[in-house]
Amino acid sequence: MAKKELTYAEAMAEIEKILGRLRSEEMNVDGLAAEVKRATELIASCKARLRKAEADVNKVLE
Predict the structure, then answer these.
(1) How far apart are CA 46 and CA 9, in angstroms?
(2) What GO molecular-function term can you cite, just one (predicted)?
(3) Chain mean position to CA 37
(4) CA distance 41 to 39
(5) Cα dihedral angle (46, 41, 15, 31), rounded to 10 degrees?
(6) What CA–CA distance (Å, rounded) separates 34 from 40?
(7) Alpha-carbon Rg of the chain, whole angstroms?
(8) For 6-19, how does the pLDDT look when each residue is reduced to its tens digit (9 = 90+)?
(9) Is the pLDDT confidence value at 38 over 90?
(10) Is the pLDDT of residue 1 over 50?
(11) Predicted TM-score of the model (pTM)
(12) Does the pLDDT at position 26 exceed 90?
């Protein structure tokens, strides 16, 4: 079964949750690497969406 692709808002909300856990020190060392990996994936996804939106807007403005 394919994973549902998150919206930009959903990805940002998940990133905020991860940051909250890091700041509150809820995370143990064992889970740290997995959380950082997930946050990195989410950030890359958000950046790609922003680049696409920028390209679409520029195309419309031309």
Answers:
(1) 9
(2) exodeoxyribonuclease VII activity
(3) 10
(4) 5
(5) 180
(6) 10
(7) 15
(8) 999 999 999 999 99
(9) yes
(10) no
(11) 0.80
(12) no
Structure tokens at 55: 């390209």
**Is pLDDT of 2 > 80?**
no
State the number of CA atoms in the 13 A half-sphere of 38 facing the CB: 16
Q: CA 55, 57, 60, 62 torsion: positive or negative?
A: negative
Block residue for tokens 């079964």? 1
- Which structure tokens are listed for 45? 């996804």
The tokens for 23 are: 């700041």
Distances (CA, A) of 37 to 16, 41, 53: 14, 6, 25
H runs (alpha helix) in 1-62: 8-23, 29-61
